[in-house]
Amino acid sequence: MEDKKSPPKTPSWGSPAAADKTAQSEGGSAPPGENRYTQWYEVQSGDTLWKIAKERYGDGNLYTEIFKANQDVLTDPDKIKVGQKLRIP
Amino acid sequence: MKTIQPYTRFIALVLAAFAIAGCANKMAPAQKAIADIEAAVAAAGEDATKYIPDQVQAVNDQVANLKAMFDKKDYKGVLAAAPALLTQAQGLTSEAAAKKTEMMDAYAGEWSTLSSSVPEAVAAIQSRVDVLSKSKKLPKGMDAATLDGVKTGLAEANSMWSQATEAQAAGDLEQAVTLAQQVKTRTDELLTTLGMTAG
Predict the structure, then answer these.
(1) Average pLDDT, chain B
(2) What is the pTM of this model?
(3) What are the residues facing A86 on neighbouring strands?
(4) What is the CA radius of gyration of chain B?
(5) Which of A82, B21, B144, B171 has its CA at a distance of 20 to 30 angstroms from the CA of residue B3?
(6) What whole-number distance in Å separates Cα of residue B126 and Cα of residue B153?
(7) How many CB atoms lie within 10 A of CB B109?
(8) Is residue A87 classed as helix, strand or coil in its secondary structure?
């Protein structure tokens, strides 16, 4: 479980292009049956959904979009685990 | 000499008559041989021109050569070369059919791939655009104009994809694949702009 307010421990990815390339290399290829263009992100230490949403979308309040896209693995938006692979819609 | 001259003239005239008759005898068959070859090329139809243009051109070039020989009254030469060229021309139909089948199989395979991947790319882009449209502040490297450009590009891609599926439904696989490849190029550009990659 990660604190939503915890400070970032990983550097900013900069542009969106850099961001998802990082996510792709960390998240690996799409599982069978999954849209091959689904963007994945592997949770790092210090991450929160808000922080991921802020970096991906520029707006942390859109963390709900990530939560909704990952309800098969998340039950609480405040509870994400290091190493978890999350869809970034 | 005076008694021989009329006889010699007669012989010469007879020989000339035979020569002319001989030429005339070969002229019509030579003409027919060329016509038969042209008919065989025509029978191969548009498929031959479309799928094996080089072979059709090669035959047409040789037909032009035969016509040049014919114009020079080399009917014997025309008749000697015609059978092989006729066989070649008659083969155009089957060669075109084989090439068409080969290309249709290739298009079918390409369509199978694109009809699976393109909608997924479009869906992923749409998903990202939908979320970014809700964002009060866009991420680094993205501004409103860029996002608007992606939206426009996505609308174009959707429109082209509709045309591609319509072409496929109408049986025009070649057009369907051509359009689908254009959509793929467009969606690849949009994915890059959005910083997204294929899994």
Answers:
(1) 92
(2) 0.73
(3) A41
(4) 33
(5) B21
(6) 11
(7) 11
(8) strand
Rounded CA separation B195/A8 (Å): 21
What CATH number belongs to A37-89? 3.10.350.10
In a mutagenesis test of the B interface, which of A13, A20, A37 is the best target, namely the one with the most B β-carbons within 10 Å? A37
Each residue's pLDDT tens digit, B50-77: 999 999 999 999 999 999 999 999 999 9
Contact at CB, A57 and B197, closer than 8 angstroms:
no
Domain boundaries in chain B?
4-90, 97-193
Task: Look up residue A51 and give its two tokens.
Answer: 């922080």
Between chains, do B197 and A89 touch, taking CB under 8 Å as contact?
A: no
Residue type (1 letter), B185: T
User: Which residue has tokens 């008749």?
Assistant: B79
- CA dist., res. B79 & res. B83, Å (int): 7
Instruction: Please give the Cα distance from A74 to A76 (Å, whole number).
Output: 6
Q: What is the pLDDT of residue A15?
A: 40
Residue B56 DSSP class: H
